[in-house]
UniProtKB/TrEMBL annotation, chain A:
Protein name listed in UniProt: ATP synthase subunit c
Keyword Cell membrane: yes
GO MF entry, a single one: lipid binding
PROSITE patterns: ATPASE_C
A Pfam entry, by short name: ATP-synt_C
Chain positions of site Reversibly protonated during proton transport: E84
Keywords attached to this entry: ATP synthesis, Cell membrane, CF(0), Hydrogen ion transport, Ion transport, Lipid-binding, Membrane, Signal, Transmembrane, Transmembrane helix, Transport
Role: Key component of the F(0) channel; it plays a direct role in translocation across the membrane. A homomeric c-ring of between 10-14 subunits forms the central stalk rotor element with the F(1) delta and epsilon subunits. F(1)F(0) ATP synthase produces ATP from ADP in the presence of a proton or sodium gradient. F-type ATPases consist of two structural domains, F(1) containing the extramembraneous catalytic core and F(0) containing the membrane proton channel, linked together by a central stalk and a peripheral stalk. During catalysis, ATP synthesis in the catalytic domain of F(1) is coupled via a rotary mechanism of the central stalk subunits to proton translocation.
Stored HAMAP family: ATP_synth_c_bact
UniProt family annotation: Belongs to the ATPase C chain family.
Species in which this protein is naturally found: Bryocella elongata
Signal peptide range in chain numbering: 1-22
Domain annotation V-ATPase proteolipid subunit C-like: ranges: 34-96
Topological type in the membrane: Multi-pass membrane protein
Automatic annotation (TrEMBL), chain B:
The keyword Transcription appears for this protein: no
Gene3D superfamilies to which the protein is assigned, alphabetical: ATP synthase, F0 complex, subunit A
Function: Key component of the proton channel; it plays a direct role in the translocation of protons across the membrane.
Coiled-coil region list: none
Similarity remark: Belongs to the ATPase A chain family.
TM region positions: 40-58, 96-116, 122-140, 160-180, 211-237
The keyword Transcription regulation appears for this protein: no
Keywords carried by this UniProt record: ATP synthesis, Cell membrane, CF(0), Hydrogen ion transport, Ion transport, Membrane, Transmembrane, Transmembrane helix, Transport
Molecular functions per Gene Ontology: proton-transporting ATP synthase activity, rotational mechanism
This protein's name: ATP synthase subunit a
HAMAP family in UniProt: ATP_synth_a_bact (MF_01393)
NCBIfam families: ATP_synt_6_or_A
Amino acid sequence: MRKLQYLFMSLAALLIAVPAFGQGSDAAAQWVPLAAGLGMALAAGLCGLGQGKATASATEALARNPGARPGIFIFLILGLAFIESLALFTFVIIFLKVHA
Amino acid sequence: MLNQLFVTKALNQVLAGPVDALLRAVHVAPANPAAPINNTFAMELLIFVVLVGYFLAIRTSLSVEKPGAFQHLAELTDEFVDDQSSQIIGHGHERFASFLTALVLFILLSNLLGLVPGFESPTADVVVPLGLAISVFLYYHYHGIRVNGFGYIKQFLGPVWWISWLMLPIEIISHFARVLSLTVRLYANMFAGDLLTLAFFSLIPVGIPLVFLGLHLGVAVIQAYVFFLLACIYLSMAVSHDH
C-alpha cells in the first residue's frame, strides 16, 4: 500500500512537471546550470562516499598489519584513482554538454 | 591564437615558416599561418628539450667515485621505478625501465609545469594524455605479443573455451576502454585543477586560491604516479604467462 502511495505521488509530480517537458529548446537551456550542478553534486558526493569507505578500510588494515604497508598503499591509490575517475567522467560530460 | 605564452611566441617567431611548409606538405591547412604552433605543443617541446638535456647531463657526468647532483636525482628516480615495477611486474621488469622512467618523468614535469606562472600544463589539453595512453596501449600489446607469441590471444578468450565468443568482444572493448580511462583521468584531473584555481580566483582574488594551487600540486604528483602504476599493471598483465 505504502509503495503504491509513493508511485502515485511521483506520477502526480511528473504530471505537474509535464509543461516543463513541453517547452522548446530555448526554455530547456535555462535548466542547464541546474542540471550540471545537480549532476556534479551527485557524482562528487557518491565519489566521496566511495573514497571514504576505501580509505577507512585501508587505514583499518594498516592499523592491524603495519607490515603490509606497500601492498595496501598501491591498492589504495589504485582504488581511489578508479573511484575518482567516475566523478571525472561526469565532469567531462558536463563540460562537453554545457559548452556545446 | 589570442593568448600565446612566451615560449609559444618565441617558437612561432622562429619556426612559423618551416612548420607551415611541413604542414602543407602533409596537406594540413594551419588555422593561423602566423602562429601554427599552439601552447600545448610548445610546452610539450619545452619538456622534451628539458628531459633530453637532463638525460644527456646524467650520461656525461656519470661517475662511481664522485656522483654529482644529477646522478643522485637519477638514481632516486631509477630506484623508485625499479622498486615499483619489480613489485608489480616481477621477473623481467628491467626491460621496461626506460619506457616507464620516460613516461613518469614526462607526465610529472607536464603536470607540474602548470604551476609555474607563464606556462601551462600540456596534460590539461586532451590530445597529450591521449597520445600517452595510446603509446602505453601499443607498448603493452607489443610486449604481450613478444613474450607470449600467438598464445597472447588466450588472454582475450576467458577461462574456458565455450565462453570465448562472448569474452572476445568484451575483452577488446575493455582494452580500448583502458585508453579512454587513462586519457580522461589525467586530462580531467589537470583541467579541473586549473579550473578550480581560476574559479576561486574569480571569487576571491587574493590569498585563498593559493590553497588550491597546493592541492593541485598534490594531484599532479598523484596522477603521474597513478598513470605510471596503471601502465605497470597493464604491462604485467600482458607479459604474464598462463600456467
